[in-house]
Automatic annotation (TrEMBL):
It holds the Pfam family SPP1_portal. This is Capsid protein. Residues 488-511 are annotated as: Disordered. It comes from Ligilactobacillus murinus.
């Protein structure tokens, strides 16, 4: 940083003190943000459980000294989110548009961004924190990329009951200046200034404290080529971002459009499970095998010499790596060797955890036996999940409704960005068709459905003319409607032509 930049920062600090320069402690201090800070404190709590990061435990030793030790959590939040994300979305998911041109373009962008591989991971964090956002943009090579924002990086501005139409995205960069860390926060505001006028505002803030956003500085400090304000008139019809909210009403804040994280849904159960897990770990660590040896057994051998002098031999010592034996002082020779190993309460901990895991499964929407043992003492299988119409299957359906809506919004946002020629270096739009296209999403149900059995049953339905061939191909082969129609055309072309005349004609008699 040169001397001119330092002088500018000093002037800005002075201006911030008298209110001339904008300064924020929290992002929610901005008047455009429509969400209270308590919502993001809640998201931070969810993040703590997802990352299994807890403060150290303070305790008193048997001698009365205060000590601190790490808290050993169960990582149940991470495991549950990972499990649910894996049954919601995988690489076999098929995304297609009814319009062939739009379908080809969307497919190329999603493949280029490795969407099917990346989205399962993003979905996992969305389940943990309550939501995730995605925003397509154009990079320096004129390629459309997808930028992701976690729940704590997404700030709604205005919203209605069914969707968020305006929002701010935050990203933080740490630089070292004068051997000190400096924190820069970029805020990107997406706002509607009219029915067809879409404005993007970029603001950069600088702080020397990690928990403060700081004062507003020029974008040139980090982004010399970035514009402060960009306005699109009569070009954009829908927001160029998509937000995935977890299903269910936000009971913590009824006016908030943000979703609930997994820990919000079963906080008491998860907290108690972690405490029991930590206590059990501690009991195992302190309950290692100990054997008490009387001190008399370890005394050195005494020898009486010919000159009536007494000499002691080498004292008996334990192996240097031995930590099982403990020397007992006092009058303990009569008691002999004692087993001092404490009994570990494994069955009590197991039963307590199993009860709490059942409650956790019920609160977050998993079938009984997903993490605990089922009523018959075994782990629930995928076939039992379907036959019992289990909670996991119902929960999956609720999440898929939200996921499908998110994918549709993202695909339309991609088409919106591709249709803006000003975003590309040559000024030419990459897509000129209709943006409001119909998007189909085919999820892989292989986790819950016996595909071979389904195919056999539906083949019978097709033969009985109660199921269209088109639907049969789409359901069992993962084809889009266009691909299924192409299959049917090829089948018709390859089938032999049995004309009516050739069937009705009588064979000539041979004399």
């Amino acid at each position: 940083m040169n001397i001119v930049d330092r002088i500018k920062i000093l002037f800005r600090k002075g201006g911030a003190k008298v209110g001339m320069v904008k300064q924020l402690n929290k992002i929610t201090d901005d008047e455009r943000i429509a969400i209270s800070q308590s919502e993001y404190d809640r998201i931070d709590m969810n993040l703590k459980y997802y990352q299994n990061k807890f403060p150290k435990v303070e305790y008193l030793t048997s001698n009365g000294y205060k000590r601190r030790r790490p808290f050993h959590g169960s990582e149940l939040d991470k495991k549950a989110c990972e499990r649910l994300a894996s049954i919601l979305f995988n690489e076999q998911c098929e995304i297609s548009a009814k319009d062939s041109v739009a379908n080809e373009f969307i497919e190329s962008v999603l493949v280029q961004n490795h969407f099917n591989q990346v989205f399962e991971e993003k979905l996992e964090t969305a389940i943990a924190l309550g939501g995730v956002a995605a925003r397509p943009y154009v990079d320096d090579q004129d390629n459309i990329r997808i930028a992701w924002a976690y729940a704590k990086q997404f700030y709604p501005l205005r919203n209605n009951t069914d969707r968020i139409s305006e929002a701010a995205f935050s990203s933080r960069t740490v630089k070292t200046e004068n051997d000190m860390p400096v924190y820069y926060t970029l805020l990107e505001f997406h706002e509607w200034t009219g029915p067809t006028s879409y404005k993007i505002t970029n603001e950069l803030y600088r702080s020397e404290q990690v928990d403060v956003i700081g004062m507003q500085v020029s974008l040139s400090a980090l982004y010399p080529n970035m514009q402060e304000v960009v306005v699109f008139d009569d070009i954009i019809k829908a927001p160029i971002f998509a937000y995935l909210k977890t299903p269910g009403r936000n009971s913590k804040n009824l006016e908030s459009p943000l979703g609930l994280g997994l820990a919000d849904r079963a906080l008491v159960q998860m907290k108690t499970i972690n405490q029991i897990y930590d206590q059990f770990y501690r009991e195992i660590k302190l309950g290692k095998r100990k054997i008490g040896i009387p001190e008399e057994f370890l005394r050195s051998e005494i020898a009486y010499n010919a000159d009536d002098s007494i000499s002691e031999g080498m004292p008996m010592v334990f192996d240097t790596d031995q930590d099982v034996y403990v020397k007992l002082r006092g009058d303990s020779a009569d008691s002999g060797i004692q087993n001092l190993t404490p009994e570990i309460r494994a069955s009590q901990y197991h039963d307590s955890l199993d009860i709490l895991l059942r409650s956790f499964e019920d609160y977050v929407g998993f079938s009984a036996g997903t993490f605990s043992l089922s009523s018959n003492g075994s782990i629930t299988t995928a076939t039992e999940v379907v036959s019992n119409n289990s909670k996991t299957y119902q929960t999956r359906s609720s999440y898929l409704t939200q996921v499908e809506g998110f994918i549709k919004d993202l695909c339309k946002a991609i088409l919106e960005v591709a249709s803006i020629g000003e975003l590309f270096s040559d000024g030419q739009a990459r897509y000129t068709g209709d943006v409001d296209v119909e998007i189909d999403t085919h999820f892989d149900d292989g986790v819950f459905v016996d595909k071979d059995k389904q195919k056999e049953e539906e083949r019978t339905d097709v033969a009985a003319s109660i199921m269209p061939k088109l639907q049969y191909l789409m359901r069992n082969y993962g084809l889009s409607e266009q691909e299924a129609k192409q299959w049917l055309r090829q089948v018709d072309e390859e089938s032999p032509d049995f004309s009516t005349n050739s069937i009705d004609e009588e064979p000539e008699e041979v004399e």
